[in-house]
């Protein structure tokens, strides 16, 4: 934690580094009470920077102990250098020299999980974004790339496995039971991609031959008890390697590719060169302990980190404002990979749902920022849905505007031109401009303007001339520091349908103006427009559809995404009507037309069960909140529960038939088809449970007891645990605990199920869970399962009118901030949205933010979020 005033860093202040480091040699003496790090840096003045007499400035965490500092073998006196606020300054250094620096670290006391720390007895590192400066003094910025050679020394019995980036080149014994291994990484890399691991780890090994014939050893390491949960990650890795060769022409470039699973990790996973470190939740998978969602996350994240080897490592970011250069592009790549491995439409629906729910909310909140932010206090706060998911949408739009072939040419040029460099999002777009001959300067506003654009569409039809005209107006609401937005360039994918569903026109319109008209000739009847097909741009689209038009699109649209979206629009409209009625004290009702449409979907056995399940899922409370002017938590909850129950009862027989149809009794597989069948089966069970009758409780219990996989078991448990059948709920929760208490990841689910239970007494339940032995406040996964699930998914309980949820969260944040600022800052998000709620709630949320603000010694992470939220 830093006591200095937290300062703001600006993109416009970027300066190239004055000093370059060609080679970095590191030696780690890993011991139980301390670790000594000797770093030898070969330093040269940057020839591209004119002022050669600049002092050498290295970053280094304030708490880090410096025990030796030499230049070309000469020990420096205390008067030769200054240390202040995270920086080490050495005056009067030669043009080119070797700096030796020894630091002493206390990894076992590192609870922030940045730099070198211990996770369940093993040593590991996390350096992105600025963790390397907690290991040694270094120009810890991504545009300083260096060749690393790393030696690890440790007790051989406790830490038989010693890993770092690149290839092992030498090894030996040191006496007293200690051994050492030296690793050499031939590819220059920024310090944020450095990693080491030391532990007693089990290994799954396989191999892969690249197209050009390079043999690559694939090694996935985990604790011994988890060795049986690594096969799926291995298969996913091989699929990703093949896919990147086929789709992007990218091959792997080292002899070894390693993944290590660790239980204590702030994020999902990290793409360190040749040595990925993964949160166990993103790599371990076994049918008995992992849900379908978990399997798909493993596949997606393994691919994501692998793809970073090119989009991130070989070509990296010039500075952290360019984060989306690697993250947006890599998310786009992993989404396309998952779409190719599974169902394209379902993947798109899932991604857009996340974007609409969480990214749109971020874009409308106090932390809103462009895909390429202009300033930050703490860069860790900018690993956001905007940089990742909206950034991926921006790359997707380039793909749509240019077409697959030109896009591939552009990416080839980008990789070739910038291999080994640290570059900017402008460089990425420039490559796309060059291959397409297009001017993309207006398009680049997607990188510089924050906020979610709004498209308002009107249409006109002249039966005389057969001319149909679409008028599209775009606008974008103000965001912090940006009052006025310029119009965007965007692809608007459109279909025109006749009333019977026949397609009259299909194509892509390109928007550039604030208002534009598009004319279509020879249209015999007024068509129904299918707009923004496949969600061709990350915008909010408004068009005044009638219920009948939406029902027609739900039935006939040839674009699967828009078929689903039409159903969602209709549900949202009906739910919003019920919310109003609830507020006015009127009886709520469910539309008969919706029941009929759902019945049709539910009984048509020719449809893909995965798509049917998507269509019959009501939008979440969080998404309904995002759409509301003022969020009325209770009305949203009550209206949604009412609709769920009404649709459950009206279609009870159909739900049961769908359940039985999908309950095939086949052995578990994690392919898209089987996952789709299970998703419809468990959705059907959830509606049966919502119907609230005893036989369905028995059905759920039966599924709980007989299922051989976590997807079905957890689905049944969740439904019972969130029902009014409290006795059975307690019984199953207890049984589940007994069965799985030694599986940490399963216990995370157990915590989350209870934390998201909306029935009476939720706060008491989470409070007692926080005392439970399976809970560990130092483990970020456990914190997310308990605090994250309560505040993010149990909305009615978190937003209890007495403000108790807010006080509870603020208490947690203040405690966690001293221990792990990154995690504290992330868990804080729900409070930052206070302005969207009714006065009573808003005031109480604001009071908790103010209480945090008044606390001395906040971390930069939490300080930035709290102070910006209070503006
Ligand atoms: N770069 C990682 C990824 O997206 C995310 C990450 C960021 C992990 C910071 C750890 C710390 O793949
Ligand atoms: Zn990433």
UniProtKB/TrEMBL annotation:
SUPFAM superfamilies: Leukotriene A4 hydrolase N-terminal domain, Metalloproteases ('zincins'), catalytic domain. GO terms for molecular function: aminopeptidase activity. Gene3D superfamilies: 2.60.40.1840, 3.30.2010.30, Neutral Protease Domain 2, Peptidase M1, alanyl aminopeptidase, C-terminal domain, tricorn interacting facor f3 domain. The keyword NADP does not apply. InterPro entries: Aminopeptidase_N-like_N (IPR045357), Aminopeptidase_N-like_N_sf (IPR042097), PepN_Ig-like_sf (IPR038438), Peptidase_M1 (IPR001930), Peptidase_M1_dom (IPR014782), Peptidase_M1_pepN (IPR012779), Peptidase_M1_pepN_C (IPR024601), Peptidase_M1_pepN_C_sf (IPR037144). Its cofactor is Zn(2+). This is Aminopeptidase N. The gene is pepN. It catalyses: Release of an N-terminal amino acid, Xaa-|-Yaa- from a peptide, amide or arylamide. Xaa is preferably Ala, but may be most amino acids including Pro (slow action). When a terminal hydrophobic residue is followed by a prolyl residue, the two may be released as an intact Xaa-Pro dipeptide. Belongs to the peptidase M1 family. Its EC number is 3.4.11.2. Residues 451-544 form the Peptidase M1 alanyl aminopeptidase Ig-like fold domain. It comes from Marinobacterium maritimum. Residues 232-446 form the Peptidase M1 membrane alanine aminopeptidase domain. CDD domains: M1_APN.
């Amino acid at each position: 934690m830093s006591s200095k005033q937290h300062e703001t860093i600006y993109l416009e202040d970027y300066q190239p580094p004055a000093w370059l480091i060609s080679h970095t040699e590191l030696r780690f003496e890993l011991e139980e009470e301390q670790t000594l790090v000797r770093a030898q840096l070969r330093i040269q003045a940057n020839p591209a920077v004119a002022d050669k007499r600049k002092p050498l400035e290295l970053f280094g965490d304030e708490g880090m102990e410096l025990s030796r500092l030499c230049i070309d073998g000469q020990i420096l006196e205390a008067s030769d250098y200054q240390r202040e606020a995270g920086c080490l300054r050495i005056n009067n250094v030669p043009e080119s020299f070797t700096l030796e620096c020894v630091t002493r670290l206390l990894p076992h006391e590192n609870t922030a999980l940045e730099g070198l720390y211990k996770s369940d007895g093993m040593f590991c590192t996390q350096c992105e974004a600025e963790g390397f400066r907690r290991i040694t003094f270094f120009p810890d910025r991504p545009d300083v790339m260096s060749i690393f050679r790393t030696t690890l020394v440790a007790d051989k019995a406790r830490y038989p496995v010693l890993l770092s980036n690149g290839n092992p080149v030498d090894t030996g014994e040191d006496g007293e039971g200690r051994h050492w291994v030296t690793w050499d990484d031939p590819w220059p890399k920024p310090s944020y991609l450095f990693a080491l691991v030391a532990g007693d780890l089990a290994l799954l090994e396989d191999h892969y031959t690249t197209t050009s014939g390079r043999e690559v050893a694939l090694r996935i390491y985990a604790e011994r008890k988890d060795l049986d949960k690594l096969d799926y990650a291995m298969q996913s890795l091989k699929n990703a390697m093949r896919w990147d060769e086929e789709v992007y022409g990218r091959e792997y470039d080292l002899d070894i590719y390693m993944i290590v699973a660790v239980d204590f990790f702030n994020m999902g996973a990290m793409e360190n060169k040749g040595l990925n470190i993964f949160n166990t939740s993103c790599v371990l998978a076994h049918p008995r302990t992992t849900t379908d969602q978990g399997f798909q996350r493993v596949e997606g994240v393994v691919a994501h980190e692998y793809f970073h080897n090119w989009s991130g490592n070989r070509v990296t970011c010039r500075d952290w404002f360019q984060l989306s250069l690697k993250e947006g592009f890599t998310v786009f790549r992993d989404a396309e990979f998952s779409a190719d491995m599974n169902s394209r439409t379902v993947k798109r629906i899932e991604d857009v749902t996340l974007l609409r729910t969480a990214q749109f909310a971020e874009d409308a909140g106090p932390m809103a920022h462009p895909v390429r932010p202009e300033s930050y206090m703490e860069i860790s706060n900018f690993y956001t849905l905007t940089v990742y998911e909206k950034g991926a949408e921006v790359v997707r739009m380039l793909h749509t505007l240019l077409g697959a072939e030109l896009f591939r040419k552009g990416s080839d040029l980008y990789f070739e031109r910038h291999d080994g460099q640290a570059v900017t999002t402008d460089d990425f777009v420039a490559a796309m401009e060059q291959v397409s001959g297009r001017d993309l300067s207006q398009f680049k506003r997607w990188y510089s303007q924050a906020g979610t654009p709004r498209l308002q569409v009107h249409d006109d039809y002249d039966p005389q001339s057969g001319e149909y005209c679409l008028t599209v107006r775009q606008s974008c609401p103000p965001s912090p520091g940006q009052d006025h937005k310029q119009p965007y360039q965007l692809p608007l994918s459109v279909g025109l349908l006749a009333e019977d569903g026949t397609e009259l026109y299909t194509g892509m319109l390109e928007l550039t103006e604030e208002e534009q008209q598009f004319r279509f000739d020879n249209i015999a009847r007024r068509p129904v427009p299918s707009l923004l097909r496949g969600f061709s741009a990350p915008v909010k689209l408004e068009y005044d559809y009638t219920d009948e038009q939406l029902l027609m699109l739900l039935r006939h649209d040839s674009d699967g995404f828009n078929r689903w979206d039409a159903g969602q629009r209709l549900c949202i409209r009906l739910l919003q009507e019920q919310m109003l009625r609830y507020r006015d004290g009127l009886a709520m009702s469910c539309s008969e037309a919706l029941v009929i449409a759902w019945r049709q979907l539910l009984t048509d056995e020719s449809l893909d069960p995965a798509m049917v399940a998507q269509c019959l899922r009501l939008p979440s409370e969080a998404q309904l909140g995002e759409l509301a002017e003022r969020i009325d938590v209770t009305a949203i909850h009550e209206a949604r529960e009412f609709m769920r129950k009404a649709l459950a009862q009206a279609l009870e027989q159909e739900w049961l038939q769908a359940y039985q149809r999908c309950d095939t009794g086949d052995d578990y597989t994690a392919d898209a088809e089987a996952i789709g069948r299970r998703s419809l089966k468990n959705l059907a069970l959830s509606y049966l449970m919502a119907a609230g009758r005893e036989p369905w409780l028995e059905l759920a219990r039966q599924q709980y007891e007989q299922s051989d996989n976590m997807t079905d078991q957890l689905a049944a448990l969740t439904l019972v645990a969130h029902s009014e059948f409290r006795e059975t709920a307690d019984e199953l929760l207890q049984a589940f605990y007994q069965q799985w208490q030694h599986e940490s990841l399963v216990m995370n689910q157990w915590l989350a199920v209870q934390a998201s239970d909306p029935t009476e007494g939720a706060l008491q339940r989470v409070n007692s869970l926080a005392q439970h032995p399976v809970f560990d406040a130092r483990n970020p996964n456990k914190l997310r399962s308990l605090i994250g699930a309560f505040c993010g998914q149990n909305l009615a309980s978190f937003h209890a009118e007495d403000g108790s949820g807010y006080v509870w969260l603020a208490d947690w944040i203040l405690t966690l901030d001293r221990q792990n600022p990154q995690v504290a800052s992330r868990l804080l998000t729900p409070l930052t949205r206070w302005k969207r709620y009714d006065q009573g709630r808003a005031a109480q949320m604001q009071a908790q933010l103010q209480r945090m603000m008044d606390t001395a010694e906040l971390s930069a992470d939490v300080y930035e979020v709290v102070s910006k939220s209070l503006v």
